[in-house]
Amino acid sequence: MLVCIVYWKKDVSMYQIWKGEIMSKKYDLVILGAGPAGITAGIYGVRAGLETVLLEKNYVSGGQVLNTYEVDNYPGISHISGIELGEAFENHAKSLGLCIEQGEAGKIHREDGFFRIVTEEKTYLSTTVIIAAGAHPRLLGVPKEQELAGMGVSYCAACDGAFFKDKVTAVVGGGDAAVEDAIFLSRVCRKVYLIHRRDQLRAARILQDRLMELTNVEILWDSQVDEILGEDHVTGVKIRHTQPDVDNKEEGSRELLVDGIFIAIGVVPNNQGLEGIASTDENGYFVAGEDCRTDTPGIFAAGDIRTKPLRQIVTAAADGANAAASALEYVEIYENVKVCKTM
Ligand code: NAP
User: Fold this and answer.
1) Cβ(307)–Cβ(340) below 8 Å
2) I need a labelling partner for 252 at 20 to 30 A (CA). Which of 19, 66, 85, 208 fits?
3) Of 114, 120, 122, which Cα lies nearest the Cα of 51?
4) What is the DSSP letter of 231?
């Protein structure tokens, strides 16, 4: 026999315990992730009158924005730290009435007319889901990387750079993140090596120009890290020249003495547990266009987790707005109701 107990919780939501599962009330929209995409989707969702909840696995909002020392390419705000911007996002969304709960979707099930989003704490029922779970740093995949993580191996210069005051560090990568990290570390460290596997950076020109002005940054072109050295903390890296120049005797491997290594070689989508809910490309990004619709009706992908040419705070925020508009349209058509107050 199935037992269903219904009770009220102080925060006005109605919960049901059904077969041992704590069920939420039924939502129009569940958003996964409190980065710029998820927060913007939440702002647009509540303003449109959708019954919305945002689930964030961390205790703070901002996503990868939190790993950024300084944001200077978000319109209207010339300089702000990532942490301050994350806080501002959350405060703005909450001031409009967005409900943000801590939780990580372990699985999404498609049922008759709605989705069941299962977290460790409870199960949420919703007509639509916006996946805005973002991405996490890609691992280099070399010996000692994981053993020495937190002992000199870091994926976030803004978070850990201060521990390397007056020390020598290396940054790996050639994109915006690596160049930003090298610029940030140059203010703290005595010397910074930027190790890049090619002879050209892919970072934005403005960042490259700033980098080239720094006297304590040395770029090691055409170089690859083969191993991280050290027992209980990083003492160096073994690097290899990928385009050996015999005349310059740059051939083969050499050891570089560094106190820390910052790995900034791109990101990987946070799609764990969400596999199969909609189609992804070969790198695991959910396939969706500007309207953020995936090939599963009712499921939308916004921000860094969707296939897109430019992953920036501003493009993630734009996705959030588009995804909420698409979710609203879906709810109105699917449930044959007129919801929208304003967008
Ligand atoms: P990214 O643009 O994908 O660049 C990754 C870099 O790491 C590339 O230079 C790549 O080399 C290198 N790389 C990849 N795999 C490697 C490996 N196994 N070993 C050595 N090097 C490797 O990644 P990102 O810099 O993290 O940026 C991710 C996204 O966030 C981008 O869209 C970026 O524009 C955005 N972002 C923007 C800002 C900003 O606007 N201020 C800041 C940070 C990030 P190759 O060049 O040879 O491929």
Assistant:
1) no
2) 208
3) 114
4) S
Contacts of 252 (CB under 8 A, 6+ apart): 240, 241, 244
The pLDDT tens digits of the residues spanning 121-147 come to 899 999 999 999 999 999 999 999 999
The finding on whether 178 has its CB within 6 A of some atom of ligand 1 is yes
Q: CB under 8 Å to 190, separation ≥6 — which residues?
A: 166, 167, 168, 216
Q: What is the β-pairing status of strands 236-241 and 253-257? A: antiparallel
Residue 106's pLDDT is what?
87
Pocket test for ligand 1, best of 77, 265, 267 (most atoms within 8 A of CB): 265
156 belongs to the catalytic site: yes
* pLDDT score of 243: 82
160, 176, 181, 259: the catalytic one is 160
Q: Are strands 236-241 and 217-220 parallel, antiparallel or unpaired?
A: unpaired
> What tokens appear for 174 in the block?
């050639």
User: What does pTM read for this prediction?
Assistant: 0.84
Pocket test for ligand 1, best of 312, 313, 315 (most atoms within 8 A of CB): 312
Ligand 1 centroid to Cα of residue 120, in Å, is 33
Cα dist from 169 to 78, 144, 226, 254, whole Å: 28, 16, 16, 16
